[in-house]
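Lab notebook, bench 4. Still working through the backlog of constructs that have no structural model yet. Next entry is a single chain of 417 residues. Request: give me the structure tokens for it.
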Amino acid sequence: MPLDWYSADAWRRIIAVDVTPTPLTWGNIPSAHWYLLPYFLMAFLTRRPRTMPFRLLLLPFAISVILRCTFQYRIENPVYGWYNWLRGLVACVAIAKATHFATAPQGFLKVGEEHFRVPRFQSRNEVATKADILFLCISDALEVGMTARGIGWQFAQGVHVPRARRPKERNAYLMCTSTSILKTFLLADLFDSLLETLPGITVSSGTIFFPSLPPVTRYTVSTVLHTITGVFIIRGLQMLYDIASLIGVGVFRRDPSLWPPVHDEPWRMTSLHEFWAKRWHQLLRDTFLVLGGYPAQYIAGNIGMLFGTFLASGLFHEVGFYLGGTPMDARVIVFFVSQAFGVLGEKLFKSITGKKIGGWGGTVWASIFVLGIGQICTDSWVARGAGGKALIPPAVSPARRLLFPIFQDMGFHTTVS
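Model written out:
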């Protein structure tokens, strides 16, 4: 057989594509995520000079370990399939960030830094100095490895940062954030539970386009469900971010100003470009630029960067689902690539009229792409069981354990147990 066949077969064996997944349990969680060790090692090396050759050498190993850990371990219960998908998405982010770590010639510098401040051993109190250096090394690795938008780092200059809308005083911020987490949890749980009660929604299939309804009603219902799903995503990401900010401000006593909002009121969009560049979250901006935007820009300039970024976004979501054990669906990629055509249309409008699209016209234009075409994306996820899978574990779900039993006692039928 040709040599390339053996190489491909060896690669498939290394990343465990053909291996029967091992059930993910509390006991083997460390084994399923040990790729974090090479990942954070690469993150640490970005804060040390002249380490690019080492980072490049580590990259293939890091990527293979990330893929193997993600393919090899999987939650067996289909009800919790969301968590397999989330593990797949995290793996994609880790691969993108590791690639960025490896290919940054000068490493990662903060805004205002011109060079790295590498700690040195001192002749006095050497034991204490070693402990301080170890703490600094771990701190550097965590700070680089866990940054999302890159706020305060040179590589992310130009990223939009929403205006703070919470108190600046620490105790007031913690109280406000805690309240937000509780409200979001209850709303997310209610939607997560109600979605399971819709006709045809299971852990492996479903649709937001109910064929039994007349066309106008059918698409009205699908639009409502798609919009609620968007709100669910917005609030869900905000809840995870709020939990992280509680740890950052409450435990590590970081300044609340370092935790600006994730989204910038997406419902106020006046153009498609504004929606994706400012209103929607920028947590994955660097991921999409590294995986598609920068390579495509090198090939086809700014137009290439535009389409490459959105293509990377579509592939990110689908590959993440595939790594989580779900077949891919081209509709998601079509949705994200269509956004590039919409943004390009806005640029053509400006070049012809000399004016930026905005106002009600811009809102309607953006809504066509986000609320209209976006429905194929939501339907794709529901068709693969997203609607029937539990994001909030039933054991801790107030809606499933308290609210729905009351409805059943009142004579209403629910399919949620």
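Notes after review: The first strand starts at residue 22 and ends at 23. The CA atoms of residues 150 and 357 lie 29 Å apart. Flag for follow-up if needed.
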